[in-house]
Amino acid sequence: MKYSIDDVPGTVRVRDELLLAHQYISDWKQFRRHSGLFGARGTRLTARVVMDAHRIEKGLALRAPKEWFGKDVLPRLKRNLDRLPHSGEHHVEHARSMAHGALAAYFAHFDASGVPAPKWLTAELRTALLPDSPDLTLGGTKPRTVASFPSVEAFDNLIESRESVRHFAKSAVALSDIEEAARIADNSPSVCNRQGSRIRVFARGPAADALLKYQNGNTGFGADASFTLLITHDLETMVAPSERNQAFVDGGLYAMTLVYALHARGIGTCCLNWSTTQAKDRGLRREIGLPPNEVVIMMVAVGYPAEDSRVAVSSIRQDRYAVGMAAPSSRPRAARQTAPRPAR
Question: Which residues lie within the region annotated Disordered (predicted)?
Answer without folding.
Answer: 324-344
